[in-house]
Design a protein that fits this description.
30% strand; alpha/beta; six-stranded mixed sheet; 288 residues
Length: 288
């Protein structure tokens, strides 16, 4: 499978421009992490890729053909978890997943539902009504429905919100294994998840793609721009620096910052993907 977005611009009826001249390609296998602040255009991009929205300008192709002409094939090979996913509270977990399997036209629904219940660690709760589930359990049901039918294209918008660290690691591993023969797009604010499993990362800001490449390539761009120093309570971060973290230590407050030019008193350290992402965003914000 290959999906392409060529010079995509999306302007809503209100006049808000959500995306501008976006071009990207993804073909099997690919595990792409999408990073960006709130309002950057990540969710809009995902909705365009599932034909939930039509672009104002540009074309989206599936295996070289217009997406709308391939909509039936897309829907039958798509697993999608939106950020806000409505569940039918009066159905049991099994009933809901069976209903979703029917909508997807999956043959052998019982086997398919049983399989994703196991993957989502929800088998013991299959007879429980959804309204009785915790927030994390409801999120696992949402992930389970996205995995129904072993789809070729999986699009996940903040899938690990509400999950504890152990559950997050479990689902990261599941997604990583599935990406061997699929295209998976993962939009998240948890940079650690992207660094752990994605072979490619997109950084989106104000409707434009700032970076498209491997995590290591983004990290390498940030070498020499990450530093740490100890400050005292009340001292401000030096101008031109963007704080990554502040930790209380015996000597004061240990600050980790990114900057085009580090202060002379800062010790340069190896960047992480989180450092690299914040540096990429902060440079763009500095132009405004």
């Amino acid at each position: 499978m290959k999906i392409e977005a060529n010079d995509i611009t999306m302007i809503y009826p209100s006049g808000k421009k959500a995306l501008e001249d976006i071009t990207l390609q993804a073909e099997t296998p690919n595990f792409i992490g999408i990073l960006g602040p709130n309002g950057a255009g990540k969710t809009t991009l995902m909705k365009l890729l599932i034909a939930g929205l039509l672009p104002t300008k540009g074309k989206i192709l599936l295996d070289g053909k217009p997406l709308l002409s391939q909509e039936k094939r897309l829907k039958s090979n798509l697993g999608y978890l939106p950020q806000s996913f409505g569940l039918y509270d009066e159905l049991t977990v099994w009933q809901f997943l069976d209903y979703m399997a029917a909508l997807k036209g999956i043959k052998g629904r019982g086997k398919a539902v049983g399989s994703v219940l196991g993957q989502a660690n929800m088998a013991e709760l299959r007879k429980v009504k959804i309204r009785r589930l915790s927030g994390g359990q409801r999120q696992r049901v949402g992930i389970a429905q996205a995995l129904l039918g072993d789809p070729e294209l999986i699009i996940l918008d903040e899938p690990t919100v509400g999950l504890d660290p152990e559950e997050r690691v479990k689902f990261r591993n599941i997604f990583s294994e599935m990406a061997q023969n699929k295209i998976i797009l993962l939009s998240t604010h948890i940079v650690e998840d992207v660094q752990a499993v994605c072979n490619r990362v997109l950084v989106i800001y104000s409707g434009s793609i700032l970076f498209d490449g491997t995590p290591s390539e983004l990290i390498s761009r940030t070498e020499g721009h990450v530093g740490v120093f100890v400050s005292q309570l009340g001292e401000e971060i030096p101008e031109g620096c963007e704080a990554v973290s502040k930790v209380n230590v015996a000597e004061g407050i240990q600050c980790r910052v990114v900057a085009d030019e580090l202060p002379s008193f800062a010790k340069s350290v190896e960047p992480t993907l989180e450092d690299a992402y914040l540096y990429c965003i902060s440079r763009e914000e500095g132009k405004e």
